[in-house]
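C-alpha cells for chain A. Residues wanted.
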C-alpha cells in the first residue's frame, strides 16, 4: 500500500479515529493504541500480497523470542549465553535476508547448479521492506544485549500476560507502518522509551502538517513528474539521444531520487508524529555537501548511523591503524551497496563510494580539528560542492540503469553530439527547480538563520506550505511507487 494512494488515506483516517477514541485515555489506553496501530500496520503491509505477512510474522516472533532470552540471561548475569543468543539472532536475521534477497543473485552466479535449482532460486520473490525490518530486528537485538534498552526487561522475562505485552510492544516497534517498508531505520533505544499512551492534545500539529505537506509535495509533484522525464533513459533511446539530453536527464534523476526518498522520509516522520512518536531526521539537505564524507552525514542518515554503529565500529572503526580503517570503510560501503540490491551494479556503487571516502580520508588525514573548523574560501567550497554533486549524480546511474551494459551505453552516449530537446529541458528544469529551491532554503537555515526566522514569523512559510499543498492536489505526476521500496 502506497502513502500516495486512496486506500492508505482511508486506512489512516480509520486508524487515527480509533487510536484516539475516547476510551484510549483510560487505564488500558496504551494497550488499545499499540494494538490498533499494530493491526493497521499488518493491513498496510499485507494489502497487496497477504502472503508476505508470513515472513513478517517469522521475523517478529523470532526476534521477540531472542530478545526475551537475551534479557533473561542478562538479568542472570550469564554473558556467555547472551553472546550466543545475539550471534544466533543476527545470523537468523541475515539468513532470512539472504534467502529472500540474495538467493536469486547467487542462483545466477552459480553456473554449476542443476537448471531446476537455479530456476527455483531465481523465482524467490523479494518481499517489500525486508532490508528495513531486518535491520530493525538486528538493532533491537544488539541494543538489548548492550544494555541500551532496558524498558521491557521485566515484561520479557515474565510469563503469561506480561510477557505477551512485551512481545506486543516488540512487534509494534518492528511493524509500525510509517517506517516499515522504507525507513527511517529507527533504533530500539530510540523507539522503545516512547511506547506509552498518547493524547491527541499532545500532538505537534505544526510538525505533522509541515512534514506531510513538504513530503507529499516532494514525492508527488517533484519526483513523480521527474519520473515521467527520466523514464526515457532506457535502451534503445539512450543510443539515439544527444549527450546533452542524457546529461540533463541524469541531473533530473539525481533530483528525482532525492525528492522521492526524502519525501517518503518526511511523510513517515509526519505520520509518526500524528500518533505521538518521534522519528529521526533522515535527510539533511544532502546536495549541499562539499565532500562525499559530508554527503553520507546528510543522506539517508539513519542508514549511515546504522552502518556506523553495527558494522563499522564492531569491525574496529578507526581504532586499529590506518590500513584497517581503509579496509573497514571499503567493507562498510561495499556491503551497504549490496544492501541496496543483490546485483553487481550496487556492489560497484558501494565500492566507488568507499573508494572516494578512502581518497578523501587519505588527502585530509593530516588536517587537525582546529583547521577543519576554520571557514573555507568560497572558491574551495564551490569546487568541493561541484565535485561532490557530480560524483554522486554520476554514481546514481547504478540505480537508474538495469545493468552494467546499459551504464556503459549511457557513458558512451554522453559523447554524442546534438542539442538538448526542449521538452526534456523544460520538464527537468520546472520540477527539478523545486528540489533545488528546497536546498537553497536549507542553506539559508544553516548559514542565515535570522532570514529563516523572519521567513517563518512573517507568515511566508504558511503561504509556501499552502502553495505546495495546492500544487500537490493539482499538478501531481502519474502515481509511482517509491524508489526505495525495491530495497
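Reply:
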Amino acid at each position: 500500500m502506497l502513502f500516495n494512494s486512496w486506500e492508505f488515506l482511508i486506512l489512516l483516517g480509520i486508524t487515527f479515529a480509533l487510536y484516539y477514541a475516547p476510551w484510549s485515555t483510560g487505564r488500558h489506553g496504551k494497550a488499545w493504541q499499540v494494538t490498533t496501530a499494530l493491526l493497521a500496520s499488518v493491513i498496510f503491509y499485507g494489502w497487496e500480497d497477504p502472503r508476505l505477512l508470513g515472513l513478517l510474522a517469522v521475523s517478529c516472533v523470532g526476534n521477540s523470542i531472542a530478545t526475551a532470552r537475551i534479557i533473561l540471561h542478562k538479568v542472570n548475569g550469564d554473558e556467555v549465553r547472551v553472546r550466543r543468543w545475539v550471534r544466533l539472532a543476527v545470523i537468523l536475521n541475515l539468513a532470512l535476508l539472504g534467502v529472500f534477497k540474495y538467493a536469486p543473485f547467487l542462483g545466477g552466479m552459480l553456473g554449476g547448479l542443476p537448471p531446476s535449482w537455479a530456476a527455483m532460486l531465481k523465482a524467490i520473490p523479494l518481499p517489500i521492506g525486508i532490508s528495513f525490518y531486518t535491520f530493525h530486528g538486528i538493532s533491537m537485538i544488539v541494543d538489548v544485549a548492550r544494555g541500551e534498552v532496558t524498558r521491557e526487561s521485566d515484561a520479557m522475562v515474565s510469563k503469561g500476560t506480561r510477557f505477551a505485552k512485551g512481545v506486543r510492544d516488540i512487534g509494534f516497534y518492528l511493524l509500525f507502518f510509517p517506517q516499515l517498508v522504507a525507513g527511517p531505520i529507527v533504533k530500539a533505544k530510540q523507539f522503545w522509551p516512547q511506547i506509552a499512551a498518547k493524547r491527541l492534545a499532545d500532538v505537534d500539529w505544526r510538525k505533522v502538517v509541515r512534514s506531510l505537506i513538504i513530503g507529499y509535495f516532494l514525492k508527488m509533484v517533484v519526483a513523480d513528474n521527474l519520473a515521467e522525464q527520466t523514464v526515457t533513459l532506457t535502451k534503445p533511446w539512450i543510443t539515439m539521444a544527444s549527450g546533452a539530453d542524457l546529461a540533463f536527464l541524469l541531473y533530473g534523476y539525481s533530483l528525482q531520487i532525492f525528492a522521492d526518498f526524502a519525501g517518503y522520509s518526511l511523510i513517515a516522520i509526519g505520520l509518526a508524529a500524528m500518533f505521538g512518536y518521534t522519528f529521526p531526521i533522515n535527510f539533511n539537505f544532502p546536495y549541499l555537501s562539499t565532500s562525499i564524507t559530508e554527503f553520507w552525514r546528510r543522506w539517508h542518515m539513519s542508514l549511515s548511523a546504522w552502518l556506523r554503529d553495527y558494522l563499522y565500529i564492531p569491525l574496529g572503526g578507526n581504532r586499529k591503524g590506518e590500513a584497517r580503517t581503509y579496509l573497514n570503510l571499503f567493507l562498510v560501503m561495499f556491503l551497504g551497496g549490496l544492501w541496496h540490491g543483490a546485483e553487481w551494479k550496487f556492489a560497484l556503487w558501494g565500492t566507488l563510494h568507499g573508494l572516494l571516502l578512502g581518497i578523501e580520508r587519505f588527502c585530509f588525514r593530516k588536517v587537525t580539528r582546529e583547521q577543519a573548523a576554520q571557514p573555507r574560501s568560497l572558491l574551495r567550497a564551490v569546487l568541493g560542492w561541484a565535485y561532490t554533486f557530480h560524483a554522486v549524480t554520476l554514481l546514481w546511474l547504478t540505480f537508474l540503469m538495469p545493468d552494467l551494459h546499459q551504464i556503459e551505453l549511457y557513458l558512451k552516449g554522453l559523447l554524442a553530439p546534438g542539442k538538448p530537446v526542449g521538452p526534456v529541458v523544460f520538464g527537468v528544469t520546472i520540477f527539478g527547480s523545486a528540489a533545488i529551491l528546497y536546498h537553497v532554503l536549507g542553506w539559508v537555515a544553516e548559514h542565515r538563520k535570522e532570514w529563516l526566522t523572519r521567513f517563518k514569523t512573517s507568515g511566508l512559510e504558511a503561504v509556501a506550505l499552502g502553495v505546495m499543498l495546492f500544487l500537490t492536489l493539482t499538478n501531481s505526476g502519474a502515481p509511482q511507487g517509491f524508489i526505495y521500496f525495491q530495497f
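The chain has two domains: 6-202, 203-290+417-487. The radius of gyration is 24 Å.
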